[in-house]
Amino acid sequence: MLTAGFLVVSLFALASSKPVARSLQVHETRAAPPSGFVRNGAASSDTVLDLRLALVKNNMDGLIEALYDVSTPSSAKYGQHLTKEEVEAYVAPTAESADAVTSWLSENGVTAKTVSPAGDWLAISIPVSQANEMFDADFSVFTQTDSGSESIRTLSYSIPADLKGHLSFVHPTTTFARASAQLPVKATKYTGSVKKRSTAAEPSACDSYVDPACLQALYGIPTTPATESSNYIGVTGYDDEYANQAALEDFLSEFRTDISDTTTFTVDEIDGGGNDQTQADAGVEANLDTQYTVGIATDVPVVFLSVGEDSSDGVFGFLDTANYFLNLDNPPSVITTSYGSNEEDLSISVAYSLCDAYAQLGARGTSVLFASGDGGVSGSQSSSCTDFVPTFPSGCPYVTSVGATTDFSPETAADFSAGGFSNYWGTPSFQSSQVANYLSYLGSTNSGLYNSSGRGYPDVSAQGVDFIIEYDEDWYTVDGTSCASPTFASVIALVNDQLVAAGKSTLGWLNPFLYENSGALTDITSGDNPGCNTNGFSATTGWDPVTGLGTPIFSSLLSAAGL
Fold first, then answer.
1. 300 neighbors 231 (Cβ within 8 angstroms)
2. What is the annotated signal peptide range for this record (predicted)?
3. Using N-to-C axis directions, what is the helix angle for 348-363 and 318-326, rounded to 10°?
4. Looking at the predicted structure, is the pLDDT value of residue 227 above 70?
């Protein structure tokens, strides 16, 4: 009796000291790392991994339906954006899902931290040895050949079979994103003379370079000061890109003599971000984005979000950025981002989850704009390829992708303007007829090089060549779709200002509105975006995967918005 009792107690103690055995099923796998990554060997067993666990959202389909309702002008619910709490009610995992995942983690001695407002993302830190055991994985060190940066990833992982339907995916595991988002612009020192411009500039202001007066004349952008402080622009910055306030003051004193040169932006910081004001530490991209939002969207408040390198989200800080804005009671009415990657760099589950975050922002009344990229049909940056390379996040239907134009009378497509069709998302309803028309025009050209059933991008475009900026106490010009995104964002912010002043809601997710009101944009019908040893796609009448629906006409957008 005593011996048998002792045996039972001992077995119980042994069982309670180990996790309960669970049947594991492969959850995500890839045959090999993507091009440009090589495996160096197994990761050290005691290296600590920062992992994110995405829980299954309870009703994402319901949120997307609500998003379309509040964003489609013909809908009876148009403009009735959701509150923070209403969005989170759709997104939050069920109590059953949350309990199932946290119980499994507890069995393994792992404590999780909630890192999203709705509780659909958890963060854990565990050594490689434990990660390999829990996920039946082989975490290894991979090197990105062109940068030399190293990351720890696995080509396959499993989760307990009974967590299917509760745990969406684990990240970063099979996603091989670059260490940082690609920087879209480079600066060229301007050797000509810089002239002060009045705000009543004629189109000839565009002769030597693009400045605010040029854009005001070209797109009919007003100089009337905005009045609504609740309507503001969020400008995102990554990779230790600092926005210099003294440079902005110099820029305004030259190109916006009608407003105070002390007009500036405010700074928010996440993931160890900062905003060092030493001129030599300023970033080309950060200066461009702040100078052209403050310089065009007269008196619309601008917040520069500096995202540091302490992010462990595995996607450049994009996920942390989205969750930061979603956690605000009053998020920006417009967010512009001039960074991105190739779609293939992210696993489809991670790409979908980020896209869902942008849908949540759209449902709350925020327009999310991304530069489409600068590689034509070869991706975010020009590179060698055979098949066309879609960019991310432009393929996400819930962002507005902005391509680039050049020239003025008429505007033409900039040859670097990234555009094409997503391999991850199908053609959404808001652009189905426009895409069908373009495919009919295209015929068999480029057949087999792109996904003809994919979401087409960009959605719109704006000037993207020879933007003059103040940088490192001198004048430079820059090219890229990252010039176009803050320009278009500024136009939308000024429309929103008038909407709010009239007691109406902001535009929010733009795409249904834009595709229903394509006449509010100037159609760009010439130019192409070569790459992959082809001429790429050609701009033509109507929407095209080079310049989208075209460039903004401020008065027409205002009229389409009901003002």
1. yes
2. 1-17
3. 30
4. yes
CATH number at residue 281: 3.40.50.200
- Overall average pLDDT of the 475-494 stretch: 97
What values do phi and psi take at 209, rounded to 5?
Answer: -165, 170
Q: Which of 285, 313, 345, 374 is catalytic?
A: 285
Burial (CB < 10 A; 0-12, 13-18, 19+), residue 505, is: middle
Is the pLDDT score of 166 beyond 80? Answer: yes
Give the SS3 label for residue 351. helix
Per the prediction, the chain carries an average pLDDT of: 92
Number of Cβ within 10 Å of residue 537's Cβ equals 29
Could you confirm whether 285 is annotated as catalytic?
A: yes
Q: Rounded CA gap, 121 and 118, in Å?
A: 8
pLDDT at residue 312, as a whole number: 77
Token readout for 239 is 């990779």
Residue 190 in domain: no
Residue partners of 195: CB distance under 8 A and separation at least 6: none
Residue 39 lies in a domain: no
Which residues constitute the domain of residue 466?
200-560
Radius of gyration of the chain (CA): 25
In a domain, 151, yes or no: no
Candidates 380, 482, 485, 490; catalytic one: 482
CA 180, CA 285: separation in Å to the nearest integer?
14
Active-site entry in 228, 254, 289, 345: 289
Tokens 């209403």, residue? 86
Domain membership flag for residue 101:
no
Report if pTM > 0.85.
yes
Residue with tokens 């045996």: 7
- State whether the Cα torsion 175-176-179-185 is positive or negative: negative
Q: Mapping DSSP to helix (H, G, I), strand (E, B) and coil, where does residue 561 land?
A: coil
Spatial distance between the Cα atoms of 248 and 283, rounded to a whole number of angstroms: 12
- Binding site for Ca(2+): residue ranges? 523-524, 542, 544
Per-state percent for the chain, helix, strand, coil, to nearest 5: 30, 25, 45
Reply yes or no on whether 482 is catalytic.
yes
Name the binding residues: 523-524, 542, 544
The reported pLDDT for the residue numbered 180 is 65
Beta carbons within 10 angstroms of residue 2's beta carbon: 6
Question: What b/e string do you get for 268-287 counting C-beta neighbours within 10 Å, with b at 16 or more?
Answer: eebbebebeeebeebbbbbb
How far is 325 from 186, CA to CA, in rounded Å? Answer: 28
Q: Which residue has the tokens 């055995």?
A: 21
